[in-house]
Specification:
- The chain is built from three helices and twelve strands, in the order H-H-E-E-E-E-E-E-E-E-E-E-E-E-H.
- By secondary structure, the chain is an alpha+beta fold.
- The protein folds into two domains: about 110 residues; about 150 residues, Rod shape-determining protein MreC, domain 2 (Thrombin, subunit H).
- The strands form two sheets. It has a six-stranded antiparallel β-barrel with strand order 1-2-5-4-3-12. The chain has a six-stranded antiparallel beta barrel with strand order 6-7-8-11-10-9.
- The longest helix has about 80 residues.
- The termini are far apart.
């Protein structure tokens, strides 16, 4: 072999590749120079970004949807929790408001009782109501005060409106009140406007009393106020009993029958007032015996100076039979 051999001739494909590389380099340099001077390549990139932006938004849509779902779930749970908290707070506030309203109403009733006692200058005792029985055939109250508290049978019971009833039974720590609306109860009354004396009977309803056998000539009309007359010695005179709401003839057409609305609030309230008797001292009211004159016998010291007391447990007047005539 000869010691010197010439380099192989380049292939046509290699020359073409080198020329393409040089051409690309020249084009790149030209584009760089043109972009540096005119900035048209930046404008081309901006326009291409506008074209490609919907693709980017579509590519990021699943991620955004998942994030929104997580945020919505968190917000919903938070709102549900806040709703429960607010609902509980509203219920508690409503309960407190109801208690405050009840306390305000009870305070107003107690103020009314106190004002009624102060207006009349009465010696009264406040007694809370323990139980109530408003059956049509039995109208009773049970008070949480009894003999140990000084309650006695026959005491008059009132409230801020007027007459409630009377004590009929006393236990050591409780007492029973017969309401004036009881069917077996009757109250002597007088029309405050004219002074006409009548009797009010219970009807077994807490909102109604009845006047029976009213003479047609009696000066009584709807709206008249009736008060206790004091007859019979059971109830003191002057306490409101009710007001006339209706008048109608009885079956015989000889008398009138009147419906009364009780002045006392028999179906509400938690306390009543018990009247205490202010009996005068016998030592101060009894007249002193006259001094015996010489030669005369001394006056009999055992002679009674007062009339016998009226029975406080006298039975109420019997109801007249229907159709009674004058």
């Amino acid at each position: 072999m000869p010691a010197y051999t010439s380099a192989p001739a380049p292939k046509p494909g290699d020359v073409a590749g080198t020329l393409r590389l040089l051409a690309f380099l020249a084009l790149a340099v030209a584009l760089i120079v043109l972009d540096h001077r005119g900035g048209w390549l930046a404008q081309l990139r901006a326009r291409s970004e506008v074209v490609v932006q919907p693709l980017w938004w579509l590519a990021g849509l699943p991620g955004r949807v998942g994030e929104d779902l997580r945020d919505n779930a968190t917000t919903r749970a938070q709102l549900a929790h806040e709703n429960r908290v607010l609902r509980n707070a509203l219920l508690i506030s409503g309960a407190r408001l109801a208690r405050l309203q009840a306390a305000a109403a009870e305070n107003a009733r107690l103020r009314g009782l106190l004002a009624a006692a102060q207006r009349g200058g009465l010696d009264v005792q406040l007694a809370p109501i323990l139980d109530i029985d408003l059956d049509p055939v039995r109208q009773r109250l049970v008070l949480a005060a009894g003999a140990r508290d000084g309650v006695e049978t026959g005491q008059t019971v009132i409230d801020a409106g007027g007459l409630v009833g009377q004590i009929i039974a006393v236990a050591p720590r409780s007492a029973t009140v017969l309401l004036l609306t009881d069917p077996d109860h009757a109250v002597p009354v007088v029309v405050a406007r004219t002074g006409v004396r009548l009797v009010a009977y219970g009807e077994g309803r807490s909102d109604q009393l009845r006047l029976a056998n009213i003479p047609l000539s009696s000066d009584i009309k709807v709206g008249d106020v009736l008060v206790t007359s004091g007859l019979g010695g059971r109830f003191p005179a002057g306490f409101p009993v009710g007001s006339v709401v209706a008048l109608r003839p009885d079956d015989s057409r000889a008398f009138l029958i009147g419906d009364l609305r009780p002045a006392a609030q028999l179906d509400r309230g938690k306390d009543v007032l018990l009247l205490r008797d202010r009996a005068p001292d016998a030592a101060t009211t009894a007249p002193a015996p006259a001094a015996a004159q010489p030669g005369q016998a001394p006056a009999a010291s055992a002679q009674r100076t007062t009339a016998p007391a009226t029975r406080s447990d006298a039975a109420p007047p019997r109801r007249p039979s229907p159709g009674a005539s004058r």
